[in-house]
Amino acid sequence: MPLSEKNQAELLKDILNNHQSDCCGSVAECEQVERIVKSLMVNSSVKENVKAVLQEIYSYSQNGINSSDLDQYITSHQGQLSQWVDEIDKFS
């Protein structure tokens, strides 16, 4: 059973919140973020302004997967993580 758009947004927010609060994460979490964002991007009910934020999160996850020091990478994105969580709150 696929997750609803709301469930996907909540899961995405949870992972990003964990990255922000813990200043660390795993490649598997970045891959999960990537899958969630892809699913939301193809959803026709997601507005264009939201898709712009999702594109930023997608880039974050891809670069995180390829980062040689994921924890440092996450730490360097603390400001964006907070901003993205706030944006997700607005549309979820």
Task: Describe the fold and architecture.
By secondary structure, the protein is mainly α. It has one domain (5-91). Helix content is 77%, strand content 0%. It has five helices and no strands. The longest helix is centred in the first third of the chain and has 18 residues, at 5-22. It is globular, with a radius of gyration of 12 Å. The model has no long low-confidence stretch (mean pLDDT 94).
Keywords:
about 90 residues; YtzH-like protein; mainly alpha; 5 helices; YtzH
Task: Report the uncertain regions.
Answer: none
**With helices defined by DSSP (H or I, 4 residues minimum), what is the helix count?**
5
Quaternary structure classification:
single chain
Q: Tell me the major beta sheet.
A: none
| Euclidean distance between termini CA atoms | 20 Å
How many structural domains does the protein architecture include?
Answer: 1
Shape, please?
globular
Proportion of residues in β-strands: under 5%
> Helix/strand-derived class?
mainly alpha
Protein name: YtzH-like protein
Organism: Peribacillus saganii
InterPro entries: YtzH
